[in-house]
């Protein structure tokens, strides 16, 4: 049974985004892109994700987007546009302005709904980045902003500055997250929850490992084999595909899977109506053991003694 697409608010905004986000980095031909985006749109999907660094795919997406305003169109900036130019990469104002203008030309639009900072740049002051982002929002070229692949402390500081100075704050966070890679549970996911950020989980199928697809990164390790086996077992019991189970686990965490489908068939494979019972979630996570480490585990261990019998459980 195909999934009836549902929608969530994007961070602390009124923007509605579908529970399945579509990454377009691998779309290299207009014919294929038209069919993939069409299958996604027919299923109710409305969030298309690209980046200035994706080059050709950004142009292809712009060529096939005939219903532009029906989509939440997102792109990213930060990665270098020219390795020989020291100012062609980074989170500073010059690169933001030039990257955004290039993306708007390629996408054949005069605005993007979401502009992500693609990667934390330790050399650019956070004040410069947040003020420059606010400027392009006020200019109408960007509606909302988000951040990808950055430390939790940076995101928290950036949004605190934005609140104090009446700038546009980050509404979304993009991170790699799947059953084989759970390290964002240490700091990034709790931070996103506390600040009300939507989490977009890239590589939710671990480059095909969790979907039963072709392995592009060599044979599976013993740990990976155990996790993949658990996903397959749950999928068989629920009458679903491994991809649908792996994506359902990501959604159950509160994150939105960002899938990089290469064909319309792969889009459809991601749309199964799967709700994981608590027992299935426990089995999957037991197969992919993860320790949050210090300070989360230490604080959880100390809370009963530290706060007494009046501990409030939320």
Give structural notes.
With 314 residues, the chain is of the alpha/beta class. It has a single domain (7-287), classed as Alpha-Beta Barrel (TIM Barrel). The chain is built from eleven helices and ten strands. It has helices at residues 30-42, 56-64, 93-107, 126-138, 152-165, 188-195, 222-238, 242-252, 264-269, 278-287, 296-307, and strands at residues 7-9, 16-18, 21-23, 47-49, 72-77, 112-117, 142-148, 170-176, 198-202, 256-259. The strands form two sheets. The protein has an eight-stranded parallel barrel, surrounded by five helices. A two-stranded antiparallel ribbon has the order 1-2. α1 crosses α2, α2 (56-64) packs across α3 (93-107) and α4 crosses α5. The radius of gyration is 20 Å and the shape is globular.
Pick out its properties.
314 residues; alpha/beta; TIM Barrel; 8-stranded parallel barrel; two-stranded antiparallel sheet; 10 strands; globular; AKR; NAD(P)_OxRdtase_dom_sf; AKR_Detox_Biosynth; oxidoreductase activity
């Amino acid at each position: 049974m195909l999934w009836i697409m549902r929608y969530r608010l994007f961070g602390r905004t009124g923007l509605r985004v579908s529970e399945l986000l579509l990454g377009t980095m691998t779309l290299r031909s207009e014919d294929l892109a038209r069919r993939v985006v069409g299958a996604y749109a027919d299923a109710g999907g409305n969030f298309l994700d690209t980046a200035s660094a994706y080059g050709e795919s950004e142009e292809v997406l712009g060529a096939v987007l005939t219903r532009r305003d029906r989509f939440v169109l997102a792109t990213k900036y930060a990665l270098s546009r020219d390795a020989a130019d020291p100012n062609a990469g980074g989170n500073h104002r010059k690169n933001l302005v030039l990257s955004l203008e290039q993306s708007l030309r390629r996408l054949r639009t005069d605005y993007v709904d979401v502009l992500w900072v693609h990667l934390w740049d330790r050399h650019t002051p956070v004040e410069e980045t947040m003020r420059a982002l606010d400027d392009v929002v006020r200019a109408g070229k960007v509606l909302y902003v988000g951040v990808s692949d950055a430390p939790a402390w940076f995101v928290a500081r950036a949004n605190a500055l934005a609140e104090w100075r009446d700038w546009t704050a980050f509404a979304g966070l993009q991170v790699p997250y799947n059953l084989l890679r759970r390290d964002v549970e240490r700091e990034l996911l709790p931070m996103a929850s506390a600040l009300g950020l939507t989490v977009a989980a890239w590589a939710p199928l671990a480059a095909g490992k969790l979907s039963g697809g072709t392995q592009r990164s060599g044979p599976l390790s013993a740990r990976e084999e155990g996790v993949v086996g658990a996903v397959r077992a749950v999928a068989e019991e629920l009458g679903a595909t491994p991809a649908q189970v792996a994506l359902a686990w990501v959604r159950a965490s509160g994150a939105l899977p960002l899938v990089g489908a290469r064909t319309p068939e792969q889009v459809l494979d991601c749309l199964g109506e799967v709700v994981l019972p608590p027992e299935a979630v426990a089995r999957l996570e037991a197969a992919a053991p993860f320790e949050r480490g210090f300070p989360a585990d230490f604080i959880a261990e100390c809370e009963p003694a530290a706060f007494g019998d009046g501990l409030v459980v939320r």
